[in-house]
Amino acid sequence: MLPFPPLSLLYLVAVRAERLTPRFAPIVVLGVVPITAAVLGLVALRERSDGVRRQVMLLIIAVAEILWALCTLAMVGFAVARRSG
Q1: Enclosing domain of residue 53
Q2: Element (H, E) at 17
Q3: In angstroms, what is the C-alpha Rg of the chain?
Q4: Model confidence band, residue 1 (pLDDT cutoffs 50, 70, 90)
Q5: What total of structural domains would you count in the chain?
Q6: What is the pTM of this model?
Q7: I need a labelling partner for 9 at 20 to 30 A (CA). Which of 2, 40, 75, 79 fits?
Q8: Helix 51-84 vs helix 4-16: angle between axes, to the nearest 10 degrees?
Q9: How wide is the angle at C-alpha 30 spanned by C-alphas 82 and 79, nearest 5°?
Q10: Which residue blocks in 1-85 are alpha helix, DSSP H?
């Protein structure tokens, strides 16, 4: 789950530096990473005795990363709007 924020931040920096055209697809693809990690983690932790506490921590991290993805999508939307005039 941790690669998503740095990768999305690098994408935003590249968009701001006008090295990349702002598009929603890269952020949506990167946004699938925390969702997939959360689902796989919840399935793996379901069978452990101390899994409930870890599942809650995993869900909190996943929600934080999904909120980060929504903020990043908003920033890309502003960049697209700015670019289109």
Answers
A1: 4-84
A2: none
A3: 16
A4: low
A5: 1
A6: 0.75
A7: 40
A8: 10
A9: 5
A10: 4-16, 25-45, 51-84
